[in-house]
Design goal:
The complex is a heterodimer of chains A (343) and B (244). With 343 residues, chain A is mainly α. Chain A has helices at residues 2-17, 26-38, 41-66, 74-91, 99-126, 130-152, 177-181, 190-207, 209-219, 221-226, 231-246, 248-258, 269-279, 284-301, 304-307, 315-342. The two termini of chain A are 26 Å apart. With 244 residues, chain B is of the alpha/beta class. Chain B has helices at residues 38-46, 70-74, 85-88, 96-100, 117-130, 147-158, 177-192, 204-210, 233-240; strands spanning 2-9, 14-21, 26-31, 53-60, 63-64, 78-81, 165-169, 196-200, 213-218, 221-227. In chain B, helix 5 (117-130) crosses helix 6 (147-158) and helix 6 packs parallel to helix 7 (177-192). The chains are: A mainly alpha (343), B alpha/beta (244).
């Protein structure tokens, strides 16, 4: 984690100095990023909203990665989870209040898991590579959810491409102390759920027999098989749980923030989640920190459009790219050192 | 362990074994040039589900294991020295403790709900000491050990519960002389403890030193069998080449 942080800082500094080429002062850009990410309680709330989503997708990618699978499909899984929650909330408004959010979380998770089950089965039984399949299924999920929203539950009061509002009993309402604390910002109780999820995953991977088997299956499938681990089964299970975790974004957005499915709501949570997991080297607790950093970066960059004339919010992508590069370099260095000690 | 009139097929190999039996308190050596079915024999015993077809009699410790999963096989009193410890027997990037419970992850202290690392650490440390693995710390990385010490850890693990059947394939491959001697002694001790031992090796010296009987595998069939009083390097060597 320390090495990742060093990589993060080097990457950030270098990326910022790129702004020199556009005639900007890197320190000024850094200041804008900071101010925009943490300047007011609303800004902080939005940063935490991104953080929440990124924790979920980061955990998703990391769990799949522990099992030796690359989950590029978190984006599709979170869309399916969100549409499931939205459909439930709009079409069944009379579920009693205390039950509704729980039910919605479960349904969203189930939808994400089922969407992940398809590539997992294709991978295990047909040998189709999960990277290709999940990537393609992201497009299918995107099209399918858009169609479902406009076909079944369009918002009658708006021309925007979005669903009708879910019944208010599904929202967290009074128990949502995070929202109260940050004054009506997009952050919500989902943050607490995400933190809880990270701790649970950490515990599962470290202390349970299942977590151990996932770990071994990912690192050395042959040895895992010889040890009596059903690698295929473990990988399918892990991938489904990864899908369920990605669907946690549905809680962040649909139940915690907007109360509806807005087409294109996700700022590519699924893809930034890969960066988050990489930066934390798949450690569930490290993901909390790296998701926060990436969330702050994403929110911070959104003000670049207004505050400067030459740099747009897309700059955050460049920063992300450079940071990931340097985090990767850092871990490669550790690897090399270890290797040379052996020989 | 008993195999009789056994025909087993994978996609690219056929095993056809008329009769192969290991008794308790005996070491049966399997000789043969590599690629004549040794690998498949271990696969057949440990991963019968990977085979397209298995016909005949396959019995391990009193169980008909033709349709057993590896997990079910692991529940039997069975120890396996893998043919390639880095591929089949360990996860090099993890530490000794994590490698030590490989195969026991649902067996050791299974009554506990969660993996009791503290207690497992103690067991592992004891076993490391008993088998003289260096370094002695269960938290050392497996990949940082020498080949001999890696193999000793694998042996320490597989013999931990005093198995009734030991499948030892290439126990001294890539292992220094001291560790080889040590591992041979462990096998002989296990034999004294009435374990049945199947020893697969490409080293004739090793086979002749340890085995009570030697069977020669050639192209997936049993080419010849020698009892201890008839061990003869030339004859065994000829059989390995397909001449009987």
């Amino acid at each position: 984690m320390k090495k990742s942080l060093i990589g993060f800082i080097i990457g950030l500094v270098l990326a910022l100095s790129l702004t020199l080429f556009a005639g900007e002062n890197p320190l000024h850009i850094a200041w804008i990023l900071m101010k925009s990410a943490f300047g007011s309680s609303y800004d902080l709330g939005l940063t935490l909203y991104y953080t929440t989503g990124l924790i979920f997708t980061g955990l998703s990618v990391s769990l799949a990665f522990s099992a030796g699978l690359f989950n590029i499909g978190a984006e599709g899984q979170l869309l399916m989870g969100s549409i499931a929650a939205a459909l439930l909330g709009v079409l069944f408004p009379h579920v009693p209040g205390f039950l509704a959010p729980i039910l919605a979380v479960l349904v969203a998770g189930l939808a994400g898991a089922l969407w992940a089950l398809i590539p997992a089965l294709l991978k295990i039984y047909r040998g189709s590579h999960e990277v290709i399949v999940t990537m393609m299924m992201n497009f299918i999920a995107s099209g399918l959810t858009s169609w479902a929203v406009l076909q079944w539950i369009p918002n009658p009061d708006s021309q925007n491409p979005e669903s009708a509002k879910i019944a208010s009993s599904y929202m967290f309402q009074d128990i949502d102390f995070v929202k109260k604390l940050l004054g009506d910002s997009p952050a919500s109780l989902a943050l607490v759920l995400a933190l809880f999820g990270a701790f649970v995953l950490w515990f599962v991977m470290k202390r349970t027999r299942w977590g151990y088997e996932v770990h071994i299956s990912g690192l050395n499938p042959s040895a895992a098989e010889r040890a009596g681990i059903d690698v295929a089964k473990i990988q399918i299970q892990a991938f489904c749980w990864a899908g369920a975790l990605a669907a946690g974004v549905a809680v962040t957005e649909v139940l915690g923030n907007s109360g509806q499915f807005r087409i294109g709501f996700s700022p590519e949570f699924g893809f930034i989640g890969i960066a988050v997991a990489l930066m934390a080297r798949n450690h569930p607790l490290g993901i909390l920190l790296s998701a926060f950093l990436m969330g702050a970066l994403h929110k911070g960059a959104s003000d670049l459009d207004f505050e400067t004339t030459t740099i747009t919010r897309d700059f955050s992508k460049i920063i992300q790219g450079v940071i990931i590069l340097f985090v990767a370099v850092q871990s490669y260095r550790i690897f090399k050192k270890r290797g040379s000690r052996v020989s | 362990m008993q195999l009789k009139e056994l025909r087993a097929e994978t996609l690219d190999f056929k095993l056809d074994i008329s009769s192969l039996e290991v008794h308790a308190g005996e070491i049966l050596g399997i000789a043969g040039v590599e690629g004549n079915g040794q690998k498949e024999l271990i696969q057949l015993l440990m991963h019968p589900k990977k085979f397209k077809k298995i016909e005949g009699h396959l019995e391990i410790l009193g169980h008909d294991t033709r349709f057993y999963s590896t997990r079910a096989l692991r529940q039997l009193s069975l120890g396996v020295f893998p043919e390639d410890r880095l591929r089949w027997g360990s996860v090099p990037s993890l530490n000794l403790l994590q490698n030590f419970i490989l195969g026991y992850q649902r067996k050791l202290l299974a009554a506990k709900k969660f993996l009791p690392w503290n207690e497992l650490f103690k067991i592992c440390a004891e076993q490391i000491k008993k088998f003289n693995v260096r370094p002695e710390s269960p938290l050392a990385l497996f990949s940082s050990l020498s080949g001999g010490n890696q193999q000793k850890l694998v042996v320490a693990r597989e013999l931990y519960l005093n198995p009734n059947l030991i499948l030892a394939s290439h126990p001294s491959r890539g292992v220094d002389i001291g560790a080889t001697e040590f591992i041979h002694q462990q096998l002989l001790d296990a034999k004294k403890g009435n374990a049945a031992i199947l020893l697969i090796s490409s080293e004739l010296d090793e086979l002749i030193k340890l085995s009570d009987r030697i069977v020669v595998l050639y192209r997936g069939r049993i080419q010849a069998e020698f009892s201890r009083s008839h061990f003869n390097e030339n004859k065994i060597g000829a059989a390995m080449g397909g001449i009987s």
